[in-house]
Design a protein that fits this description.
Helices cover 78% and strands 0% of the residues. It is an all-alpha fold. It folds into two domains: 1-52; 54-161.
């Protein structure tokens, strides 16, 4: 059996995925390599080398990124974890043009309650569920918007092809 050395941040991410999905560390790395190989082998690329679904790939990336950040925050509510979630929220707003206000409110409530040692445990559970639901809605919005963009781009390519063949 071999050993590889990776930065602590990557080790934490691998550990997190292994724990969440109940998989051994090697399986998490293997799954990531499988996706990497599939992406780079051309199965997700056009003949010209560009991504087959660039908007969807970007949406999935940000969906995973925000989900991982929230998962890390739930596992350990340290200020740097909250800052990490805030950075991803800012990227989603600026780069994807998504309204994150509902999610931000749920996140704020969650953090405030986690920091309150006297908070009612039942209420804490409700706020955690609220955060999870807000995250699901945010991910849905990210993917929906990407699919709309993909459809628009596909229709434009189709339209250009039709115009070229009819001239």
């Amino acid at each position: 059996m071999g050993t590889i050395y990776v930065p602590n941040e990557l080790k934490e991410r691998i550990d997190f995925y292994a724990k969440v999905h109940g998989k051994p560390l090697w399986r998490v790395v293997m799954d990531a390599m499988t996706f990497y190989e599939m992406f780079n082998s051309g199965k997700l690329r056009r003949k010209d080398g560009t991504s087959e679904f660039p908007e969807l790939a970007k949406a999935i990336w940000y969906s995973v990124k925000i989900s991982m950040a929230v998962g890390a925050l739930k596992a350990d509510t340290r200020p740097e974890r909250a800052e990490s979630v805030q950075r991803v929220i800012k990227q989603i707003k600026e780069r994807l043009g998504i309204n994150t206000s509902l999610f931000e409110r749920a996140l704020y409530d969650y953090i405030q309650l986690k920091l309150d040692p006297n908070a009612n445990p039942e209420y804490k559970k409700d706020v955690e569920i609220e955060l999870t639901n807000a995250l699901k809605l945010l991910v849905l919005e990210i993917i929906y918007k990407a699919l709309q963009k993909e459809e628009k781009q596909t229709n434009e390519r189709h339209s250009q092809t039709i115009q070229t063949t009819t001239k």
